[in-house]
Amino acid sequence: MSLRIGSIAPDFEADTTEGRLRFHQWLGDSWGMLFSHPKDFTPVCTTELGYLARIKPEFDKRGVKLIGLSVDPVEDHKRWAQDIKDVMGAAPNYPIIGDSDLKVAKLYDMLPAEAGDTAKGRTATDNLTVRNVYIVGPDKTIRAMLIYPMASGRNFDEVLRLIDSLQLTAKHKVATPANWKQGEDVIIVPTVSDEEAKQRFPGGWKAVKPYLRVTKQPTA
Asked: Catalytic one among 34, 44, 45, 187?
């Protein structure tokens, strides 16, 4: 199954480091971020998991639940957690899915069907496409996807910026310009007429071009 922005995030049931869960039920009415890793005890992923543990309060503030996935059994994840703490000063404080049968990786189109049904004997290179980030909205649709190669650590500060934009634009009829950050001016989307914009944005706007109207970020 090919996943795109706007697709329903596939539901699944799996064992995790915090017990067995069903993904949609676990999400509830929250936003969520599912991020995947090709194998335990890999260097770049070790830094990523630890960094996320340190900045988890930032995701909590935004109402975003974190859940990881790695193509190995849960027991290996638990052993890996100590290494992550040693390296980064914090162990994962969010669930990590055990995907030793590759079911979730295949469900999310990160591995082909012919990859088999066990992580045993597979290297990180065999699983190199399991390096995705999915931002999921409260309606269970995929709002954004990011795909990184194994050798490039993910920028989770950028992910937070993206989430700020996703949550703002889901609530208001605005878009965010290049390099936008929280509190900066936004763009009124073209589908909003000037008449509607007068009601939605009483502070007015600057028309840079007929299709590019810039206004203060809504705060309500």
From this structure: 45
